[in-house]
Amino acid sequence: MLVRPLRYLKAVADHGSFTRAAAALHVSQPALSQQIRELEERMGVQLLDRSGRTVRPTDVGEAYLRHVRRALDELEVGGRAIRDVQDLSSGALRLGFTPSFAIYLLGPLIRRYRDRFPGIVLTITEMAQEEMELALGTDALDLGLAFSDVLAEDVEWLPLHTERLSLIVGQRHPAANGNREMDAAALAAEPLALLGPSFATRAMVDRYLRRNGVHPRVAVEANSIAAIVEIVRLAGLATILPETVAQEQKGLCVVRLTPVIDSRRVALLQRRSGYHSAASRAFVAVAQDYATVIQQSV
User: Fold this and answer.
1) What is the model's pTM?
2) Which of 137, 136, 4 is nearest to 68 (CA)?
3) Would you place residue 255 in the very low, low, confident or very high pLDDT band (cuts 50, 70, 90)?
């Protein structure tokens, strides 16, 4: 069976009109109607109810369309596989990332990837991890940059590096001198600029402070890591963020906290058993190489 009449049938059902479906498909209405009539004759059933102002699938048509939609979705995936250029001179990659990585991890990864594969078009979307897992499961994303605590059964994670949180200060901060260590008692007296309560990083910081009996002096709360970094760099406050932030941003120093904060695993997420394009596989390789660099510098 040809795919064209199936696409026509889906378009009419989606638009509720032969006229609008024909316009969307850039075909003539008579040609579209003829294809669907021939399909109905071949199937031996009426698939569309044409009696009202809006064209609707019949009960049989609705049941058939459920399979048609799945089949067309699979054909689209197959088309993407055919168009996938193995030499990576062209292609596309859809990447989701959680806000924590915007300032210290996303930029270096994209820079390294673009240096090697400048022909790949990147679509990058910031989102919560729950949204990311849903988007991966429905093939709306190719990869996600998040943490390894995956909840969705149809999403798997590929380990990158272990992220360690520490106190970060500007170079003119008193704690930037000496042994660059600070215990919980000293931390309690330190004015802090922290991410807002909605961030997973802030939740880890709050748990650490409670566990060590620290009542923090929160001078600034912000919903942007970039804003926090500038405040720390210029206003003399301290923050608690991944150590790699200080490694990627100029004018910052890491001060190790004692006791240390629990680490967490950074991971790439992808759809389990889904199609993984050449562009996607190449990004995984670049990310894993960079993760090795991060681990060696910690």
Assistant:
1) 0.62
2) 4
3) very high
